[in-house]
Amino acid sequence: MTDSRVTSAPPAAASPAGASPATPRLYVETFPVGDIRMLVPLLDARHPLLWIRKGQGMAGRGEALRLEFTGDSRFRDACEAWRGVTAAATVVDPLGTPGTGLIAFGAFAFSGQSGRTSVLIVPELVIGKRDGVFWLTRVRVLAEGETVPSGHPESAPAAPDLPPATGFGAEYRISLLPGAANPDTYRAAVEEAVARITHGDLEKVVLARDLVGRLPGDSDLRRVIFDLALGYPDCWTFAVDGLIGSSPETLVRVDRGTVSARVLAGTISRGRDAEADHDQAVALATSAKDLDEHRFAVASVMTALAPHSTTLIASEIPFTLKLPNLWHLASDVEGALSDGSTSLDLIASLHPTAAVAGTPTLDALALIERLEPFDRGRYAGPVGWVGADGDGEWAVALRCAQVDDSGSITAYAGAGIVAGSEPQHELLETKMKFRPMVEAFG
């Protein structure tokens, strides 16, 4: 069963050719502004919208348009809906920088059977900074019968003021405790998965577990986001509809006809000193188990992108990627798009990769459904943004938690299970991956 919903205010008017009659007409203006030091203090304290890496990216405030999707067709429905929105929109963008003009922040459920909706959200205001360019984009929905403002200089509006940067609310410390998948449950699931792999039913499966907590009613989510962005600057720090995290894995980036991705699979903890840290990196780079896991993940991405690019290349051998708390095996993939696909088209082709599901995909998904005692929601799904031209940046929603309006928090972490995986080792790997969220909330 599938469903999609569109919400906006005020009601939509008649749309031009190529757009659905129900599609709201958006009027979008981007203005250059002065230096923006930090984006996080500009966010709404309880409903933040953010996409940054190394301090650069976009912050959103308010919702001019919200698109919701469910079911197995959620990606296809999102592509169609976004085409309609962009066809109906009038965009004034003198900068032409990635992230300017009309954009939507997005987060998609891992499974089509999930009870969590997938969303594309167009903010009322977008504040951005990239490569020394600073901007503010204002979006409003045109009322029925309202004409598009003229472009004459005498009628050109002044740039709106930036929203005020406000101090963070009171400090808080929240303990995240085992959820539906406690340590014993998780180890038993890993044992069963290894038995299935040894029997030849599949080659790899990614099994996740959950931690839960509760946020006090007046808590400022910007505190968590600020800690993540500061502690993990090389990751994509994101906040979309309550999904908050810092992901090291770029699912796909589309920029002016070029497609790129970063594949992560294979993990080991950092060493206690420089010598031990070097030894850990070498151990990871020479681990047959981790190299096998990584090979499955790279092959998954290459297979998914091959129909869209005839020049696709990947790193010859994986490299070790250093994060504050662990090492990853990583490979970069890049190519020129040959079929005009948008970033939304590509996340539909890529998801789920072997890095978050397993190999073969359908067998892995079936085993995940049986062994994981919870709904993943948007964990391990695509999170990021898309522009009016279809370009965008999307990460895999890892190192993340879903925070609901009720204050409930659910954090997720998983590990790739292959032949030879040891249940206690995989449990400890998930503990390492929980660290960013546990420390940010605690």
What does this molecule look like?
- This protein has 442 residues and is of the alpha+beta class.
- It folds into two domains: 3-155, no CATH class; 177-441, Anthranilate synthase (4-Layer Sandwich).
- Helix content is 25%, strand content 32%.
- It contains eight helices and 24 strands.
- The protein has helices at residues 74-88, 183-199, 222-231, 274-285, 288-305, 343-350, 361-371, 423-441; strands spanning 3-8, 26-32, 49-53, 56-61, 65-70, 90-92, 103-107, 118-122, 125-130, 133-141, 177-178, 204-214, 236-240, 243-247, 250-255, 258-269, 313-314, 319-322, 326-336, 358-359, 382-387, 392-396, 400-403, 408-417.
- Strands 2, 3, 4, 6, 9, 10, 11, 12, 13, 14, 20, 23 and 24 form a 13-stranded mixed sheet that branches.
- Strand 9 and strand 10 form a beta hairpin.
- Helix 2 packs across helix 8 (423-441).
- The protein is globular, with a radius of gyration of 22 Å.
Write the layout of secondary structure elements.
Layout: E1 3-8, E2 26-32, E3 49-53, E4 56-61, E5 65-70, H1 74-88, E6 90-92, E7 103-107, E8 118-122, E9 125-130, E10 133-141, E11 177-178, H2 183-199, E12 204-214, H3 222-231, E13 236-240, E14 243-247, E15 250-255, E16 258-269, H4 274-285, H5 288-305, E17 313-314, E18 319-322, E19 326-336, H6 343-350, E20 358-359, H7 361-371, E21 382-387, E22 392-396, E23 400-403, E24 408-417, H8 423-441
Parallel strand pairs: 2-6
Antiparallel strand pairs: 1-5, 2-10, 3-4, 3-13, 4-9, 5-8, 7-8, 7-21, 9-10, 11-12, 12-20, 12-24, 13-14, 14-23, 15-16, 15-22, 16-19, 17-19, 18-19, 21-22, 23-24
Helix pairs in contact: 1-6, 2-8, 3-8
